[in-house]
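Entry: Aminotransferase DegT
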Amino acid sequence: MTGTTIPAAKPLIGDEERAAVDRVLRSGMIAQGPEVAAFEREFGEQLVGGRTCVAVSSGTTGLHLGLLAAGIGPGDEVIVPSFTFAATANSVALTGATPVFADIDPETYCLAADSVAAAITERTAAIMPVHLYGHPADMTALGALAQARGVQLFEDAAQAHGATWQGAPVGSFGTFGMFSLYPTKNMTSGEGGMVSCATPEVVRQVQLLRNQGMERRYENEVVGFNSRMTDVHAAIGRVQLGKLPAWTAKRQANATFLSEHLEGVGVPHVAQGATHVWHQYTIRVPQDRDGFAQALLAEHGVGSGVYYPIPNHQLPSFGLEFDLPVTREACEQVLSLPVHPSLSDEDLERIVAGVNAVAKAGA
Ligand SMILES: *Cc1c(COP(=O)(O)O)cnc(C)c1O
């Protein structure tokens, strides 16, 4: 194999981001200020139907503060998927509540309502689906379940900026929804998170917790954190927000091309009424997935990633027993191919040729 490797992910930082950072640095106001306020307003208008958003220092922090603002704490159970990044369950554990793991739908990889229903107990306080890979969870079924059982609904939308379910944007369903702004996500601020809030009370609680429990300086109302976003990061995020629609369209076009041309592997499914924003394009390789990935890289220069190889409940940090067969199989079979907006036509052709050749050789 000659030539360069096509990376699995690639943050896109341009002159506009650099100029925005420079503008903030020259202003002398670097910590949370007018750029953060503008970013929150623009993000809310563009991505969550005008809901009020609160910017924080990371997506994980956004989940943590959102959970605390919603009143989650010791004695509560929150139902989460095990097939996700560890931050989902970590944020629940950090409040003192107990994460309870449920299984996923084999086609969308998002929480399955029947598995969630079976996991509900009298201690269940909330259900927190993840819109995994940029595909929305079934918010109709999960919303109906939450309402019927009198529990709250939260959204981990870390990977799903701009995704919609039955026409409504993710982050507009739950008591709160969280978007990550980490560099490998669909848009970035360097590090950062955005919390979309359902009510003025949740907005105020997240704002208080972000800033040492203060609304007015030195009049601390509750014990809080320093989880503020800086104006430097917000300036990057505002530029990226403007670029997001074109990037999402390119991700969608890339995914369509891949699904039309890949052979011999299981291509991803898009549920009826879902708009997928393709944070990941994830195929299924039923036999020897890791060997498949190695051959793809060594023989064709195509990078790939496994999200996620270990069910979260089995991580050393949790070490719990749950019987989640769909999750277990997904951990063994999933492989995410490059789908990011900087792929060229030649890159896409090389990914298709590579995957099809490796699939044929292994068949
Ligand atoms: C990235 C991610 C997070 C955490 O976001 P950070 O900004 O990295 O803290 C949480 N949940 C999911 C599903 C993620 O992919």
